[in-house]
Amino acid sequence: MHKAIERELDDLRAGLNLLRIKYNAAILQKFHIYLEVLFNMRNKLHLLSHQDYERIAKRHFLTSLMALDFVKGHRRVCDIGPGAGFPSIPLKILEPAMDLTLIESKRKTADFLRYLTEHIGYPEIDVVSERAQDYEEKTFELILLKAVGKIKKLMVSIDRLIEPGGRAIFYKSHKVEEEIKQTKKDLEKKGFHLRLEKLFTPLERLPLALVILDKNQ
Question: Which pTM value belongs to this model?
């Protein structure tokens, strides 16, 4: 496991350098702990595919951080369906002032997230084990959504949870135009402005689209 973690940290450093994201020993230590937890849970909970344990930094840490420039400055942040903690936990490590809520409907995954955040050193992160459509406690400046379904299907929950002037960021593939077309009128009716950023991940150069929805004040 030690060699696997060192490999992932080497990939992480290389990717951060390509993205021109500044980091220090304390940041790398948090990612080290994150990796330890993921590897320790490998045979206890199905969080990642078997292949992904050989590319956690490339496929998950660095992909999550592709939205960093669009996340900076937002404080009250919600991640809907974070699974193993992506994209919000890597973003939190780089933006520690973020007040983060994780809404995860699967109880065992929510338990894992509580364990993870405690070990990394973020006991203040609020992990909520319920569906986003049932959550009513508070609203947010920023909502993050990665691998959780179609934009159109999630619009009602997003509109209810986001504050005026807030933002939602979907992580999608480059082939997202048809999905945007299907929901564009609904977005406009609800006062959202859409921005599409087509990017490529560092190291692997895989296509990534960020669909950024900004809500009117």
Answer: 0.95
